Protein backbone atom coordinates (compact mmCIF):
# COMPACT_ATOMS: atom_id res chain seq x y z
CA UNK A 1 0.00 0.00 0.00
CA UNK A 2 1.38 3.42 -0.92
CA UNK A 3 1.62 6.37 1.49
CA UNK A 4 -1.45 8.22 0.21
CA UNK A 5 -3.68 5.16 0.41
CA UNK A 6 -2.49 4.54 3.96
CA UNK A 7 -3.31 8.13 4.92
CA UNK A 8 -6.80 7.74 3.49
CA UNK A 9 -7.32 4.54 5.51
CA UNK A 10 -6.06 6.17 8.71
CA UNK A 11 -8.41 9.13 8.21
CA UNK A 12 -11.39 6.83 7.64
CA UNK A 13 -10.73 4.83 10.82
CA UNK A 14 -9.87 7.82 13.05
CA UNK A 15 -12.33 9.81 15.14
CA UNK A 16 -10.00 12.28 16.87
CA UNK A 17 -7.84 13.93 14.21
CA UNK A 18 -5.76 17.03 14.86
CA UNK A 19 -4.03 19.03 12.13
CA UNK A 20 -0.91 21.11 12.80
CA UNK A 21 0.07 23.41 9.92
CA UNK A 22 2.46 26.12 8.86
CA UNK A 23 3.19 28.51 6.02
CA UNK A 24 3.19 25.79 3.37
CA UNK A 25 -0.57 25.41 3.80
CA UNK A 26 -1.08 28.97 2.57
CA UNK A 27 1.52 29.11 -0.19
CA UNK A 28 -1.01 27.33 -2.41
CA UNK A 29 -3.27 30.35 -1.86
CA UNK A 30 -0.43 32.53 -3.23
CA UNK A 31 0.69 33.75 0.19
CA UNK A 32 4.52 33.64 0.23
CA UNK A 33 6.29 31.37 2.68
CA UNK A 34 8.25 33.52 5.16
CA UNK A 35 11.38 31.48 4.47
CA UNK A 36 10.77 30.38 0.90
CA UNK A 37 12.56 31.69 -2.16
CA UNK A 38 11.25 35.21 -2.85
CA UNK A 39 9.46 35.00 0.49
CA UNK A 40 9.52 37.44 3.35
CA UNK A 41 13.07 36.58 4.40
CA UNK A 42 14.52 37.30 0.95
CA UNK A 43 13.18 40.82 0.52
CA UNK A 44 15.36 43.89 0.19
CA UNK A 45 14.57 46.19 3.13
CA UNK A 46 16.55 48.62 5.22
CA UNK A 47 16.24 46.30 8.19
CA UNK A 48 16.05 42.48 8.42
CA UNK A 49 12.45 41.15 8.54
CA UNK A 50 13.07 39.68 12.01
CA UNK A 51 13.88 43.19 13.22
CA UNK A 52 10.95 44.89 11.49
CA UNK A 53 8.32 42.48 12.78
CA UNK A 54 9.50 42.76 16.37
CA UNK A 55 7.64 44.45 19.21
CA UNK A 56 10.40 46.98 19.87
CA UNK A 57 10.57 48.01 16.20
CA UNK A 58 6.78 48.34 16.06
CA UNK A 59 6.97 50.70 19.04
CA UNK A 60 9.98 52.74 17.89
CA UNK A 61 9.41 52.89 14.11
CA UNK A 62 5.69 52.33 13.48
CA UNK A 63 5.76 54.01 10.07
CA UNK A 64 8.39 51.59 8.74
CA UNK A 65 6.71 48.66 10.51
CA UNK A 66 3.36 49.29 8.85
CA UNK A 67 4.89 49.92 5.43
CA UNK A 68 6.48 46.47 5.59
CA UNK A 69 3.44 44.88 7.23
CA UNK A 70 1.02 46.12 4.56
CA UNK A 71 3.30 45.27 1.63
CA UNK A 72 4.58 41.88 2.75
CA UNK A 73 2.17 40.36 5.27
CA UNK A 74 -1.33 41.31 4.18
CA UNK A 75 -3.12 39.37 1.45
CA UNK A 76 -6.79 40.36 1.83
CA UNK A 77 -7.78 38.81 -1.51
CA UNK A 78 -6.32 35.35 -0.79
CA UNK A 79 -8.80 32.47 -0.98
CA UNK A 80 -8.84 29.06 0.76
CA UNK A 81 -7.18 26.27 -1.22
CA UNK A 82 -7.95 22.51 -1.33
CA UNK A 83 -6.04 21.91 1.92
CA UNK A 84 -8.22 24.36 3.85
CA UNK A 85 -11.38 22.93 2.27
CA UNK A 86 -10.41 19.32 3.01
CA UNK A 87 -9.79 20.13 6.68
CA UNK A 88 -13.13 21.95 6.94
CA UNK A 89 -14.81 18.87 5.44
CA UNK A 90 -13.13 16.59 7.99
CA UNK A 91 -14.39 18.79 10.82
CA UNK A 92 -17.89 18.73 9.32
CA UNK A 93 -17.68 14.91 9.27
CA UNK A 94 -16.92 14.96 13.00
CA UNK A 95 -13.45 13.49 12.57
CA UNK A 96 -11.21 16.55 12.87
CA UNK A 97 -11.29 18.09 16.34
CA UNK A 98 -8.91 21.02 15.83
CA UNK A 99 -6.71 22.89 13.38
CA UNK A 100 -3.61 24.28 15.06
CA UNK A 101 -1.97 26.79 12.77
CA UNK A 102 1.09 29.00 12.72
CA UNK A 103 -0.51 31.08 9.95
CA UNK A 104 -2.08 34.47 10.52
CA UNK A 105 -4.22 34.78 7.37
CA UNK A 106 -7.58 33.45 8.62
CA UNK A 107 -8.03 31.14 5.63
CA UNK A 108 -9.00 28.12 7.72
CA UNK A 109 -12.03 30.01 9.04
CA UNK A 110 -12.80 31.32 5.56
CA UNK A 111 -12.95 27.70 4.38
CA UNK A 112 -15.46 26.84 7.10
CA UNK A 113 -13.30 25.47 9.92
CA UNK A 114 -14.62 26.42 13.35
CA UNK A 115 -12.18 24.83 15.78
CA UNK A 116 -9.04 26.79 14.86
CA UNK A 117 -6.21 27.60 17.26
CA UNK A 118 -4.02 30.40 15.90
CA UNK A 119 -0.63 30.21 17.59
CA UNK A 120 0.63 33.44 16.06
CA UNK A 121 -2.61 35.42 16.00
CA UNK A 122 -4.49 36.77 13.00
CA UNK A 123 -4.28 39.76 10.66
CA UNK A 124 -8.09 39.74 10.65
CA UNK A 125 -8.30 40.92 14.26
CA UNK A 126 -7.07 44.41 15.10
CA UNK A 127 -7.56 46.65 18.13
CA UNK A 128 -6.98 50.28 19.00
CA UNK A 129 -4.22 50.37 21.59
CA UNK A 130 -5.96 53.27 23.35
CA UNK A 131 -9.70 52.50 23.49
CA UNK A 132 -9.51 48.80 22.46
CA UNK A 133 -12.10 49.21 19.67
CA UNK A 134 -12.09 46.24 17.27
CA UNK A 135 -11.19 46.66 13.60
CA UNK A 136 -11.48 44.13 10.78
CA UNK A 137 -8.61 43.74 8.32
CA UNK A 138 -10.40 45.91 5.78
CA UNK A 139 -11.19 48.59 8.37
CA UNK A 140 -7.59 48.59 9.58
CA UNK A 141 -6.26 49.07 6.04
CA UNK A 142 -8.72 51.88 5.29
CA UNK A 143 -7.79 53.67 8.53
CA UNK A 144 -4.16 54.09 7.45
CA UNK A 145 -3.30 57.77 7.19
CA UNK A 146 -0.84 59.50 4.88
CA UNK A 147 2.01 58.18 7.02
CA UNK A 148 0.70 54.63 6.60
CA UNK A 149 -0.06 54.18 10.30
CA UNK A 150 -3.60 52.94 11.04
CA UNK A 151 -5.36 55.08 13.63
CA UNK A 152 -8.65 54.90 15.47
CA UNK A 153 -11.05 57.87 15.58
CA UNK A 154 -9.89 58.34 19.18
CA UNK A 155 -6.35 58.94 17.88
CA UNK A 156 -4.92 55.68 19.16
CA UNK A 157 -2.75 53.46 16.96
CA UNK A 158 -4.34 50.24 15.74
CA UNK A 159 -2.31 47.07 16.36
CA UNK A 160 -2.89 43.75 14.63
CA UNK A 161 -3.50 40.68 16.79
CA UNK A 162 -0.31 39.10 15.47
CA UNK A 163 2.43 37.72 17.72
CA UNK A 164 5.55 39.74 16.94
CA UNK A 165 9.11 38.80 17.74
CA UNK A 166 9.79 39.50 21.46
CA UNK A 167 6.12 38.82 22.27
CA UNK A 168 4.87 35.67 24.00
CA UNK A 169 2.40 33.24 22.54
CA UNK A 170 -1.05 33.16 24.13
CA UNK A 171 -0.87 30.71 27.05
CA UNK A 172 -4.51 29.61 26.69
CA UNK A 173 -4.00 28.83 22.99
CA UNK A 174 -0.86 26.86 23.84
CA UNK A 175 -2.55 24.84 26.59
CA UNK A 176 -5.55 24.03 24.37
CA UNK A 177 -3.17 22.96 21.60
CA UNK A 178 -1.33 20.64 23.98
CA UNK A 179 -4.63 19.10 25.12
CA UNK A 180 -5.85 18.46 21.56
CA UNK A 181 -2.53 16.99 20.38
CA UNK A 182 -2.08 14.75 23.42
CA UNK A 183 -5.56 13.26 22.93
CA UNK A 184 -5.42 12.81 19.14
CA UNK A 185 -5.55 9.36 17.58
CA UNK A 186 -4.20 10.79 14.30
CA UNK A 187 -1.91 13.83 14.06
CA UNK A 188 -1.45 15.30 10.59
CA UNK A 189 1.37 17.83 10.26
CA UNK A 190 1.58 19.79 7.02
CA UNK A 191 3.34 22.68 5.34
CA UNK A 192 5.77 23.43 8.14
CA UNK A 193 9.54 23.18 8.49
CA UNK A 194 9.08 22.44 12.22
CA UNK A 195 11.89 24.85 13.07
CA UNK A 196 9.91 27.69 14.69
CA UNK A 197 9.68 27.31 18.45
CA UNK A 198 7.83 27.13 20.78
CA UNK A 199 5.17 26.17 18.21
CA UNK A 200 7.11 23.24 16.71
CA UNK A 201 7.64 21.75 20.17
CA UNK A 202 3.90 21.12 20.52
CA UNK A 203 4.02 17.94 18.46
CA UNK A 204 6.17 16.34 21.18
CA UNK A 205 2.94 16.01 23.17
CA UNK A 206 1.48 13.51 20.70
CA UNK A 207 1.12 10.10 22.32
CA UNK A 208 -0.38 8.09 19.46
CA UNK A 209 1.13 5.92 16.73
CA UNK A 210 -0.18 7.74 13.66
CA UNK A 211 1.85 10.88 13.12
CA UNK A 212 1.74 11.95 9.47
CA UNK A 213 4.11 14.52 7.97
CA UNK A 214 3.13 16.12 4.64
CA UNK A 215 5.73 18.56 3.31
CA UNK A 216 7.62 19.37 0.15
CA UNK A 217 10.96 19.34 1.93
CA UNK A 218 12.63 17.27 4.64
CA UNK A 219 11.97 18.28 8.26
CA UNK A 220 13.84 17.53 11.51
CA UNK A 221 10.90 15.35 12.59
CA UNK A 222 10.75 13.02 9.58
CA UNK A 223 12.42 10.19 11.48
CA UNK A 224 9.87 10.40 14.30
CA UNK A 225 6.85 10.37 11.99
CA UNK A 226 4.95 7.15 11.30
CA UNK A 227 4.18 8.27 7.74
CA UNK A 228 5.98 10.86 5.59
CA UNK A 229 4.42 12.12 2.35
CA UNK A 230 6.38 14.46 0.09
CA UNK A 231 4.17 16.66 -2.02
CA UNK A 232 1.54 19.39 -2.21
CA UNK A 233 -0.47 19.60 1.01
CA UNK A 234 -3.58 20.65 -0.91
CA UNK A 235 -3.30 17.80 -3.38
CA UNK A 236 -2.58 15.17 -0.73
CA UNK A 237 -5.45 16.20 1.57
CA UNK A 238 -7.86 16.67 -1.34
CA UNK A 239 -7.16 13.11 -2.50
CA UNK A 240 -7.38 11.68 1.01
CA UNK A 241 -10.64 13.38 1.97
CA UNK A 242 -12.29 13.43 -1.44
CA UNK A 243 -13.44 17.06 -1.42
From TrEMBL:
The gene is cobB. This is NAD-dependent protein deacetylase. It holds the Pfam family SIR2. The active site is at residue 120. It comes from Lacrimispora xylanisolvens. Keywords: Cytoplasm, Metal-binding, NAD, Transferase, Zinc. NAD(+) binds at residues 23, 27, 34-35, 102, 104-105, 120, 192-193, 215, 233. NAD-dependent protein deacetylase which modulates the activities of several enzymes which are inactive in their acetylated form. GO terms for cellular component: cytoplasm. Binds 1 zinc ion per subunit. InterPro entries: DHS-like_NAD/FAD-binding_dom (IPR029035), NAD-dep_sirtuin_deacylases (IPR050134), Sirtuin (IPR003000), Sirtuin_cat_small_dom_sf (IPR026591), Sirtuin_class_U (IPR028628), Ssirtuin_cat_dom (IPR026590). The keyword Zinc applies. Residues 1-243 form the Deacetylase sirtuin-type domain. It is found in: Cytoplasm.
Amino acid sequence: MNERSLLKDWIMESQNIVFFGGAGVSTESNIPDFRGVDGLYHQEYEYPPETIISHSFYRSKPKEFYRFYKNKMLFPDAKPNPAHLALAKLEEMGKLKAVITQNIDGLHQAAGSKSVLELHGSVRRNHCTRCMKFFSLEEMISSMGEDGIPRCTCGGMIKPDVVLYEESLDESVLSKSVAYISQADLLIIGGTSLTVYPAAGLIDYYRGSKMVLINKTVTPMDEKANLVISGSIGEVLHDAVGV
